[in-house]
Amino acid sequence: MLRLQAIILAKAKHFTVPSPSSLRLVKKRMIAMDLMHHSSCFLLPTIPLQRRPSLTYALLVLNQNLPRFTPLLWNHAQLHLCADGGANRLYDEMPLFFPQEDASDVRRRYKPDVIKGDMDSIRREVLEFYASLGTEIVDKSHDQDTTDLHKCVTYIRDSASGLDKSNLCILVVGALGGRFDHEMGNLNVICRFSSMRIVLLSNDSLIHLLPRTYCHVIHIQTSVEGPHCGLIPIGRPSKSTTTTGLQWDLNNTAMEFGGLVSTSNIVKKEKVTVQSDCDLLWTISIKKL
Ligand SMILES: Nc1ncnc2c1ncn2[C@@H]1O[C@H](COP(=O)(O)OP(=O)(O)OP(=O)(O)O)[C@@H](O)[C@H]1O
Ligand SMILES: Cc1ncc(C[n+]2csc(CCO)c2C)c(N)n1
C-alpha cells in the first residue's frame, strides 16, 4: 500500500514539477520567440513619440456607421481608402461630426485616396464627387468571390506605392456590428492576411489577430480602452495558451469553440502578455469617453 502511494506520489511529482532541464528548454524557447508589441495609441489625439516601433497607418472605411473617432484616425493615417459603399458613409456622415461647417468643405477635406470594390453599393453622385476631386477608383465588379474589404487590403499590400509598408497598420472602421455574414467575412480577412497588422474597429470594441509565431505584449491605453476583453481561438483549437495581466489568466490552458473560450475577461495591468500555439483573436472594449 505504502509503495503504491509512493509510486502515485512520484508520478504526480513527475507530471507537476518539471525537471530543471525541461524548465531551461521552456525558458530558451520563450527567449527565442520574437516579441510583438501592440498599442491602441491611434485612439489618442497624439501618438506618443516613444512608441516603438513607430507605425504607419492606413484607414479603411467600410459600409457601416462611422465610429465617433473616425476624424482622429483619419488624421493619424497616411492613406485613406473606402470599400465600395464605405464611400457613401464618408460622404453622408463625415459632415455630421462638424455641424458648424459647410458639408461640402468637410467632404473636400476628407477626400479618400482610393475607392475600391465591386461598386454595387456606392451611389453615382458620391462616385462622381470623389472622382472629380482626384480619388482613384478601382472597379472590381467582375470579382464576386472576395469581399470589398479583401479587395482593399490587397490594394494596400500590392499597389499602394509611396507608403512605408515595413511597419504598416490598417485601421478598419465599420467592421463590427450590423450584418453577421459581413462581420464573419471581416474576421476572415484578418485571418487570411495574418502577416499584416489589421485592426477591426467599431464604436464599442476593436479586434486584431495575435499570430502564434510571436509572444505578444499588449500595451493597454487605459484612458480609451478596457477593461473588458477576450481571447478567442479562431479556426482551430489551442492546446496551450498562457497570459499575464488578466483577471482570469490562462496558464498553459486549452481553448476551443464548443469548449473554453475567454470572453468577458478583464484587463488588470497596463501590460498584457499572450503566448499561444494558435492564432488568437484579441478583443478589447473601447471606452465611451
Ligand atoms: N453591416 C455590416 N457589418 C460589417 N461590415 C459591413 C457591413 N456592411 C458592409 N460591411 C463591410 O463593408 C464592405 C463594403 O460594403 P458594401 O455594402 O459595399 O458591400 P457589398 O459587397 O455591397 O455587400 P453585399 O452585396 O453583401 O450587401 C463589405 O465588404 C464589408 O466588409
Ligand atoms: C461560396 C461563395 N459564397 C458566397 C459568394 C458570394 N460573394 C462572396 S464575396 C462577394 C462580393 C461581395 O462584394 C460575393 C457576392 C461566393 N462568391 N462564393
From TrEMBL:
One MF annotation (Gene Ontology) recorded for this entry: thiamine diphosphokinase activity
Subcellular localization(s) per the UniProt record: Cytoplasm, Cytosol
Cross-referenced InterPro entries: Thi_PPkinase, Thiamin_pyrophosphokinase_euk, Thiamin_PyroPKinase_B1-bd, TPK_B1-bd_sf, TPK_catalytic, TPK_catalytic_sf
Function according to Swiss-Prot or TrEMBL: Catalyzes the phosphorylation of thiamine to thiamine pyrophosphate (TPP). TPP is an active cofactor for enzymes involved in glycolysis and energy production. Plant leaves require high levels of TPP for photosynthesis and carbohydrate metabolism.
EC primary class: transferase
Alphabetic keyword roster: ATP-binding, Cytoplasm, Kinase, Nucleotide-binding, Transferase
Reactions accelerated catalytically: thiamine + ATP = thiamine diphosphate + AMP + H(+)
Domain of life, source organism: Eukaryota
EC number: 2.7.6.2
A single GO BP: thiamine metabolic process
Protein source organism: Gossypium stocksii
All copies of domain Thiamin pyrophosphokinase thiamin-binding, residue ranges: 216-280
Protein name: Thiamine pyrophosphokinase
